[in-house]
């Protein structure tokens, strides 16, 4: 799936914020905050066509698991093909707001990493706050929430919930992105 599919989904689905897949540079930049050498549980909100997902699956420990939460029908169909080729991957056709029930329903260990590129700027403030709280609650005590966004609108909401937040600006992506590492402790 490429740029054309992203544009089609962008036009049809208000929850899709990107018109192009994330660059390999952005993927590697955000994923450097993940310790791939140890078994872990990783959740990705809104994986789209799976640019981050494929990179994570190639690099994660053999005893790790990756849960992809996607609400867009077209993206889910493509992700299910990817899931069929990788036993460590589970695709859930749902919304990120339901992360806690998804984790419980799939009998997952506390989550070590949650990655998100969903457009938080499209969410109403109460929903955004609730999703950040649910994410915090779903994470293991040493867990991290890794977020990438077009605008620098997530720094304060993340700082309101997480005790440590690092931010970087990633130029080598269309459009450039802000990347955040929010640590639970």
Supply the key terms.
seven-stranded mixed β-sheet, alpha/beta, 185 residues, 7 strands, Rossmann fold, single chain, 36% helix
Named CATH architecture: 3-Layer(aba) Sandwich
Q: How many domains, as an integer? A: 1
Backbone structural class: alpha/beta
- In CATH terms, the superfamily is Vaccinia Virus protein VP39
Helix count? 7
pLDDT under 50 segments (min length 5)? 3-19
Numbering strands along the chain, what is their spatial order in the largest sheet?
3-2-1-4-5-7-6
Give the overall shape, derived from the CA principal axes.
Answer: globular
Question: How many angstroms separate the termini?
Answer: 37 Å
Whole-angstrom Rg: 15 Å
Strand content: 25-35%
Could you tell me the CATH topology label: Rossmann fold
The biggest sheet, with number of strands, parallel, antiparallel or mixed sense and barrel status, is:
7 strands, mixed
Helical coverage, percent range: 25-40%
What's the mean pLDDT score?
90
User: What is the subunit arrangement here?
Assistant: single chain
């Amino acid at each position: 799936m490429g740029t054309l599919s992203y544009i089609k989904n962008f036009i049809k689905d208000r929850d899709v914020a990107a018109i192009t897949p994330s660059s390999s540079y952005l993927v590697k930049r955000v994923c450097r905050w993940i310790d791939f050498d140890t078994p872990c549980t990783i959740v990705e909100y809104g994986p789209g066509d799976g640019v981050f997902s494929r990179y994570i699956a190639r690099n994660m420990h053999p005893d790790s698991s990756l849960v992809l939460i996607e609400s867009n029908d077209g993206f889910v169909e493509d992700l299910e093909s990817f899931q069929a080729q990788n036993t460590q991957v589970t695709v859930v056709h749902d919304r990120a707001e339901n992360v806690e029930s998804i984790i419980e329903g799939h009998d997952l260990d506390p989550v070590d990493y949650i990655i998100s590129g969903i457009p938080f700027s499209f969410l109403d403030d109460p929903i955004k706050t609730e999703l950040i709280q649910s994410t915090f609650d779903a994470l293991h005590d040493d867990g991290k929430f890794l977020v990438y966004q077009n605008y620098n609108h997530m720094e304060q909401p993340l700082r309101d919930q997480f005790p440590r937040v690092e931010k970087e600006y990633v130029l080598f992506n269309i459009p450039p992105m802000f990347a955040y590492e929010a640590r639970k402790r």
